[in-house]
Amino acid sequence: MRRRDFLGFSTAAIAGTFGAGTSVIQMCFAESSPATGDRALNPNTQWLLNAKWGLFSHFLPKLSGGQASNNMTEEMWNKKVNAFEVSRLADQLEKLKAPYFFITIGTRDNYFCSPNRAFEKQFGPGKGALTERDLVAELAAELIPRGIKLCASLPALGGDGTVETQKMYQQVIAEWSNRWGKSISAWWIDDGKLADRAAYVAYNDAFKAGNRDALIAYNTGPLVLTYNLKEPTTDLEDFFAGQVDWYLPTCAVRAFDKKEFWVGPSFHGDQLHFLTFLGSYWGTGAPRFPDDLVVGWTKHTNNYSGTITWDVPLNNSGLIPKEHFRQLTVLSKKINS
Asked: What's the pLDDT score for residue 118?
């Protein structure tokens, strides 16, 4: 049976599970809550469940969490994107047997790795930096024939902007979705806390314009320790965005009644999925965990029908650094064997 009802956390110190002399800390067990408005999972999420793990990358004009350089220009951004070696990254992903790969198209700083006429028409010149190269289309052309699904990340406008601005931005999204069509298997949408269900319908229509079977997750921020039930962001999403910063979700079985519980808040309604960074933070830094923890936590989540997406840095050539590639090779051998 596919699990999707419970969620929880221990701190990153759960690494102690895999090393002597360290203990798990700050555990908070939450009982399962009665099903509230239970719904069947989208059958299209089966591939995500079967994948068990995948990769995500923030290829941006800045490190995640920082600001774009004050002297960053559209010309500089185009130069950086043009230096991205798509075929060599595809070679790396193929060697790793990565089932899927997420690329961040852009963030709220409006630097995007693909051209978009709707953006230019709706927001005018100087409102963002679009590239001449369509990096997403090139990645699709390299990855899909190798059996690697391509997925994409882009923010919504959250609660910002007027209804008219939201509609303008949705036209931008729809242009990309229609262009790439079935090449995009899933969307991970940041700033996903929208005003109402009608807003989610409008965004879903935009993101799925080119592929109605594409999966969607709306992220509303990192998971935290709480007893509150974690419901889906909307009934229109397919998998749990699952942003994990410092607390790694873990499951336990109570001795006295043999019930399974995740440490932290209950979770209900979507395909279970977590996204966290392999480096020291999103899109940057040396690997923060030992190999055994990366493998162990991935297997642990897989055992409860969940999937882990690891955010990995890319260098200026768009390649996975050697130390991260080595660790991912270990992961791949353990999970894919």
From this structure: 95
